[in-house]
Amino acid sequence: MAPIIRIEDLHYTYPHEGGAVQALRGIDLTIEQGEYVVLLGHNGSGKSTLAKHLNALLLPTQGDVWINGWNTKERRHLREIRSTVGMVFQQPDNQIVATIVEEDVAFGPENLGVERREIQRRIEWSLQRVDMLPFRHRAPHLLSGGQKQRICIAGVLAMQPSVLVLDEATAMLDPIGRQEVLEVARRLNREEGVTIVAVTHFMREATEADRVIVLHEGKIALQGPPRAIFQQIDQLRALSLDVPHVSELAQALHRRFPTFPPDLLTPQEIATAVITCCNGNQASLQRRGEQKKEGSEVRDEGRATKKGDFAPSAPRSSSLAPLLSLCGVAHYYMRGTPLEVKAIEDINIEVHRGEIIGVIGHTGSGKSTAIQHFNGLLKAHEGEVRVLGQNLADPNVDLRAVRRAVGLVFQTPEAQLFEQYVGDDIAYGPRKQGLGPEEVRARVRRAMEAVGLPFEEYKDRITFGLSGGQMRRVAIAGVLALEPQVLVLDEPTAGLDPQARRQLMRHILDLHKQGVTLVIISHNMEELAEICHRIYVIAEGRTVMAGTPAEVFSRASELRAIGLDAPDMTQVAEALKAQGLLPADVVIYTLEQAEAAIAELLLARGAVLAETAAGGQAR
Amino acid sequence: MSEFEYLRNVTVGQYIPTESLVHRLDPRTKLLAALFVALAATSTRSVLATLLLVGLLMGVTRLARIEVRYVLRGLLPAAPFIVVLMLMQLLFQGRFSVCETVYWERGFVRITPCLIELVILGALRLIIFLFLVSLLTLTTTASHIMHGIETLLAPLQRIGLPVHEFALANIIALRFIPTIAEEMERIAKAQASRGGDFGGESWWRPDRMARARLPLIVPLFVNTLRRAEELIVAMEARCYLGRKGRTKFVDLHLTGLDWLVIALSILLWVVLWRTPWPTFT
With an 8 Å Cβ cutoff, are A140 and B175 in contact? Predict the structure, then answer.
């Protein structure tokens, strides 16, 4: 059977600011019907450009793309090609055309000239496939991000495509939404035989694929099954990509214990590997008694690592009043109208000077509403908000001063930029404050340098000509220019590629070293687990958990019950606990902790260390 | 208190699903009936007849299981306009009055019974129009209204009017109102967080007012244009190539009841128009 997608020597060049950009430079690729392919690559590697060639949204400058035997250059096959390859994009909001779910799903079939009764049937079928049938008469803007994205998938499915292209379709979703979409893709692939081509930044999503293709500078840099690809850590890093945490762990262990397999992808596989790794070794039985003891040592070591990272934790003595506190805060939207909704009902958060606080909760849990109380954007309808010792309910409080002291950076803050030049945009806040030109300049300089944008080089650049990651840093600098004491960041790394993400996190941590107190809202558990002193978990408008990362992540099952993920390493630990290999009270959430714990386990079970093995051979 | 809640003020296309008889009517029926009631309101000069029409509309509201009070409250924002309009008529229309009787006269102001009748009539007609529009949007989803208009105007397609494109553009506009309102809210909050504010300029300096709002307007435009571009790509990816070869999923069909309602509304118009109601003019 002919391949569903065949690409030969594909080049694509587009004009940009006077010059020409070579986005794709010679891609040769075939994808068979029923495959699950993941495209990886940093921003600008050409992966989205390639995806857009698959349904003739872009046409090759050189070379050919055949879909099911039709060349995309032939306009008369456009309808066939586009109904064969369905595409779902990053922003669900910008793909939905109708005000009612089922009418939106009908849009594709309508365009294909399908008759009414058949459209009706397809709407039911495709909404069923994405578990959204009960929502068919709803208005899309009232749905969650994951639900909207599933509607978009249904809209594509209704055209009965053989290929589904997901162009970063999970990038803007929370973990639940991402799970929902992936689950749907997986099911379509297995049950309906739909070919999936997924473009993503999330390495974990790539572990499910049959084949991973890594693009770099418009060419295919690596290609193969995920197990093989994710072993090439150094190469992937050189291409500005990450490796799934579990693979990283497996390889770290493999370096220490040559018998431990390096090519593992899931927590379950790690647990199995620990069991089978040194099964032949009799030592495991003898050491069984010591295992418990060692378990507790492991835990201590885990804590030690934590303290090592952050010399004495932030002051939390009761004598010092918190910098910022929410106490029993409730807030309603559309108050006084028939559409009144309770957004949050009992939020309790305390932030002390010098701390890094993490806030987690899925979309709609009320965490964004909660943080908008920090600088008085929203006023508490119930409860008390105190900032720098002032009660915000007091009408004499100068809200502008509060907003300068508590810098709030919204999600995708690059969407708020408005000045033509970078420097002017960052200067907006200080100028509004009425500072003199010298002081404004000094502040803009400091703010830009804090986020790694050299002042002289960037101040006169055109704001809208920057890359996404750079624009985000400009937006953060715009808040930093107010020299806040507390910086609140809502999803600072969402939608960035791994390299930009690492870079941004480094700058944010530098700010903390300079004395800025941080509050970070994130879906990225790994990120929070590593840097936060304390974490608050918000669910359904209430703070349901609070404590150190160790305390919070020790309740992994509760986190899952409210729709949140535990860090990958916590999941590894859970898999080990399920096998009775680790005692239940051990808490693990970073790679170092997991590596230390498993190394202990392996040693206890008689695994041979790399040095010992090498020494043995030398002898 | 809620300086940032823009969404609350967006009432366009507010729809209250009570599943009543009125809700179930075909949107074309409701559009036509509204048209004929509006015609009826303009073709009689009798206050009595117009009041009867208001009563009829209230009856229809009850039939739609919507509180009349709720509809009237929705008309409140228009009250100042109605009052101003009435005052203007009262002050300036008197000179053209055909009545012989004059109650009061000073300068160019001349109050006659005809004038009072005219003023009341004008206000009532305006109320009827607003009532009709809100009744229509309260009982019909925006998309159904658009599909109704599209089908009703379809014949004009033949003389080259882009009826389908007009309807689609309107549906998309309606679909994006809440999205863009939310976006606006977020931008306002973000700018406020970096020390911005958008009030306080004097109204006689519109240039300053506009400048102060640039931080809101520029990002809103940039983002909306970006959304539009993405939407176009997404629509093309779903095979949208214009009206040709397209079918329609939304199935509008007229039932016996629909025909009855249309016939009754035409009858109402003719009766109101033809009846010799007692008036001053």
Answer: yes
